[in-house]
Design a protein that fits this description.
The chain is an alpha/beta fold and 358 residues long. The protein contains 13 helices and eleven strands. Bound molecules: 6-O-phosphono-beta-D-fructofuranose. The site of 6-O-phosphono-beta-D-fructofuranose has 10 residues, from loops.
């Protein structure tokens, strides 16, 4: 049996991409008499422009623990895929041509929501596509976890832990901004793991006075410090009613680039405490994957190879309970998985006295 497999990583990177690539490749080399792997550079850009490598088996060794992606990545927005821009390139046509020219049996795409939407488009255009769900945001529908998420939770928790000790020494209020523009999973999990007093998510618009009450109450109880974990995409109740452009203009007028900076300033003004913002940013996406993510990425990669063997295309791999499964791309593409308001973890946090600011 011979398989010629194209593979690419698209969108924001995360730990575990190389482990997943390795999982696909190692399983494929074991499974098929002849395996050829074509690695596209920088995500869909490589597929559009025909920028690729005929990979050697040795390139998949020694990468299990490596952060980032050996293939490189880029953001090619799904909304632009059908748009002919100044370069006059029909991107969908170009991707199909590259796939056909290289005589691929299938294409494996590792990515988040945007990547899955394009994967679904290519599948509908007749290409044999298999998706693998990665993102530190954990916001892909149909899978309990994406790879990259647990490593980011570990990193963000470590940040909160370290901030905790210095906050306690100085009696400060520390506002820690965790990545996640639309989905608050990373803030929820790391906030819980790091023992935050307040957790603010994009899905639950907040009232700054409610956050201030907590900080004030703790100060009065002689717990002079407070830890606030806020998602980068969190918004005030009044902002939640605005359209995105309007909200951006409103914030620009206030002169804030980051939610943590604004919140720290507001809290020092309202409560009179010393409040400091902390923004770990892309640190949350860097470095070696955790043991959990190495295993999950490997499981996902090997499952993708199984699908290739069985010629089952048009699917993305997922975790459900403890089982690795696959969902139809058409069922999950474009459906973000946000934190539900009645989520068990949110309820649990509320039972413990953690405030969401609503
Ligand atoms: O999707 C992962 C993520 O890190 C989000 O949490 C964040 O909002 C976004 O990517 C940042 O993207 P970029 O690296 O392109 O600034």
């Amino acid at each position: 049996m011979k398989r010629r497999i194209g593979i690419l990583t698209a969108g924001g990177d995360c730990p575990g991409l190389n482990a997943a690539i390795r999982g696909v490749a190692k399983a494929a080399y074991e499974m098929f008499d002849e395996t050829e792997i074509v690695g596209f550079h920088d995500g869909y850009r490589g597929l559009i422009e025909g920028d690729y490598d005929e990979m050697k088996r040795s390139q998949f060794s020694g990468i299990l623990t490596l952060g980032g992606t050996i293939l490189g990545t880029s953001r090619t927005p799904f909304s632009n895929m059908r748009v002919i821009e100044d370069d006059n390139v029909d991107k969908v046509k170009a991707m199909k041509q590259t796939y056909e020219k290289l005589k691929l049996d299938c294409l494996v795409t590792l990515g988040g929501n945007g990547t899955h939407k394009t994967a679904n488009l290519l599948s509908q255009e007749g290409l044999n596509v298999i998706g693998l769900p990665k993102t530190i945001d954990n916001d892909i529908y149909g899978t309990d976890f994406t790879f990259g998420f647990h490593t980011a939770v570990d990193i963000a928790t470590d940040v909160i832990d370290r901030i905790h000790t210095t906050a306690a020494s100085h009696g400060r209020c520390m506002v820690i901004e965790i990545m996640g523009n639309k989905a608050g999973w990373l803030t929820l999990y790391s906030g819980l793991a790091g023992g935050a007093d307040v957790i603010v998510l994009p899905e639950i618009p907040y009232d700054i006075d409610k956050v201030a009450e907590v900080v004030e109450r703790r100060a009065k109880q002689k717990k002079a410090f407070s830890i606030i974990a806020v998602a980068e995409g969190a918004m005030e109740k009044s902002e939640a009613k605005m359209k995105r452009k309007e909200r951006e203009a409103y914030r620009a007028k206030q002169g804030f680039t980051n939610i943590a900076i604004r919140m720290a300033k507001q809290l020092s003004e309202i409560v009179g405490v010393e409040a400091r913002p902390v923004i770990p940013g892309h640190m949350q996406r860097g470095g070696s994957p955790s043991a959990y993510d190495r295993v999950l990425s490997t499981q996902f990669g090997v499952h993708a190879a199984d699908l290739i063997r069985d010629k089952q295309y048009g699917y993305t791999v997922a975790l459900s309970g403890n089982q690795v499964i696959h969902n139809r791309l058409s069922d999950i593409a474009g459906v973000p998985k946000l934190v539900p308001l009645d989520d068990q973890m949110v309820a649990l946090a509320r039972h413990m006295g953690i405030i969401f600011g609503d």
